[in-house]
Amino acid sequence: MREASFYIAEEGGKVKCILCPKNCSISEGNTGVCGVRENFSGKLYSLAYSKPIALHLDPIEKKPLYHFFPGSKILSIGTYGCNLNCRFCQNSDISQEFRKEDFDNLEEVTPEQVVQICSKYGYKFAAFTYNEPSVFFEYMFDIAVICKKNDIKTVVVSNGQINKEPMLKLIEYIDAFNIDLKSFNPDFYRKICGGDILTTKQTIETIVEKKKHLEVTFLLIENLNDNESEFVELCKYLSGLDKNIVLHISRAFPRYKMEFEPTPLILISKFEDTAKKYLNYVYTGNI
Ligand code: SF4
Predict the structure, then answer these.
(1) Which residues of the chain have pLDDT under 70?
(2) Residue of 6, 14, 15, 19 with the most ligand 1 atoms within 8 Å of its CB, for mutation
(3) Among candidates 28, 46, 66, which has minimal Cα distance to 178?
């Protein structure tokens, strides 16, 4: 556990976390929406600091990143928690269905130890992934700073729900991003995911402005976010930023609170064809 960055004290012992657009006002003994940032005696703490649930070596293509050092292996780090509550969440066991007591059962791995593992085995890449890394900002940031000193490239796989100030602090130490863009419909973000599309767009635009490597993932779900005109708007938005942004169209499977058929392959192909009219690099995944 470690004191959090990006919060302000409020009256009555409450604290306001200003890390993500939820901007949770948290009373003593409670956590914010993400479940991993807790108010202890009027200070905000990150429960996830140095508590990874997984440190795993993956192919970089699995993040997915297809245009960033293809063929490399990447040490992937995740904890518990998420600042969205997507009803179709594809990894709800670590994002939604955990208790804060579960952190007690995890072994401590400090940022220095993560980088020592990379150095010992010659790993040149580290990813913050599996759950939403914004919610373990301090752990991610400290690892990324040491990685940069040790010439290890870093990758963030995120829903993009992070406020501008922390994003600007983080981005200096990150080399590549994969950002989920779940729909181009603000109501979808609000009602199905409990999120704010404008923040995800702001994050994407910051990455483009700062000239960091960016790939985007769109999880296609039949009858949920398969409105073709909205998808055309999404593709036009990305191509307006840069036609070379890589787009991954990913197949969805029924998980968490939603029952639906796995995305039909014919629908994936149709969306792939549409996206290729606007973007130079479109891939399908999870099929
Ligand atoms: S990071 Fe967590 S506690 Fe902070 S504003 Fe977002 S959901 Fe709330």
Answers:
(1) none
(2) 19
(3) 66
Helix (H) or strand (E) holding 37: strand 37-40
User: Got the DSSP string for 111-139?
Assistant: HHHHHHHHHHHT--EEEE-SS-GGGGHHH
47 lines ligand 1 (CB under 6 A): no
pTM for the model stands at 0.96
Annotated domain spans of the chain: 2-46, 54-285
Pocket flag, ligand 1, residue 15 (CB < 6 Å):
no
- Note the residue count of the chain: 287
* Dihedral sign, Cα of residue 154, residue 23, residue 90, residue 38: positive
54-285 folds as TIM Barrel (3.20.20)
Percent of the chain's residues with pLDDT above 70: 100
Ligand 1, from 16, 30, 83: best to mutate by most atoms within 8 Å of Cβ?
Answer: 83
135 ligand 1 Cβ < 6 A: yes
Q: Is the CB of 25 under 6 A from ligand 1?
A: no
- pLDDT for position 195: 97
Cβ(5) – ligand 1 distance below 6 Å? no
pLDDT, tens digit (0-9, with 9 covering 90-100), for 228-262: 999 999 999 999 999 999 999 999 999 999 999 99
pLDDT of amino acid 133: 98
Does residue 85's CB lie within 6 angstroms of at least one atom of ligand 1? Answer: no
